[in-house]
Fold Trk system potassium uptake protein TrkA.
Amino acid sequence: MHIVIMGCGRVGSTLAHILEDKGHSVAIIDQSPEAFRRLRSGFRGRRITGFGFDREVIAEAGIERASAFVAVSSGDNSNIISARVARETFGVDNVVARIYDPRRAEVYQRLGIPTVATVRWTADQILRRLLPEGAEPLWRDPTGAVVLAELDSGHLWVGAKVGALEEHADTRVAFLSRMGEAFVPQRDTVIQDGDIVHIMANAEELERVNAAVAARNGEDA
C-alpha cells in the first residue's frame, strides 16, 4: 500500500519506518524541513514540506493513490482538517487522526473519522502504574464509554471458572494472560494462580465490577 503521513514527529517518523519495513511505500509531510532529520538515512519514502491540509501538498505526496492517510502532527485542528480533506476530497477511506482533546475525539468519531485521543490514553497508562490495584483501563474507545481493563482477580478466584466470574460480576472476560501468553478463554476455563484477567465493560461499570470480584463469597463453581 501507499500511505501518506502528516507530521514527522516521534510518532510520525516511527510509523514511517515501521510501514516501510513492512514493504509499504510512504510519503511523509511536515511544515518544517528540520523534522525530517528524525528519519533514518536509508529512508526511501518521499519527504514533502508543507501543510497536510493543503490540497496541492497532499496531492504531491500521492494521496490520489494512497490506501491510507494518517494525521499525527502536534495540532488537533491541523490533524482533523487534513483527515477530512483526505477523506472528503480525495476519497481515502482509511483515515486516522491523532487528537489530544478527548472531547473533540468523541465529536470527530461520530463524524466517521477514527481518532486516537493521546492525552486520555497516556493518563490511563500512568494511572495503571501509580494505582495498580483493581480494574484500570488498558484501552478505551474515543468516546470513553467502553474500556478494556486489566482486573486483579485475586487469590479468591484461583480455581474458579471464567464463566463463574462473568456471572458473579456481570461482566465479560475478553482474554487471559498466563505466564506471558494471552489467549481467549472458554467459560469453563479454570483461572490459575498468576493469571491476569482482562475484561470489556462500560467505563461506568468498572468500580462495580471490581467490588463484585473482591466480594466473591467462595461458593462460585
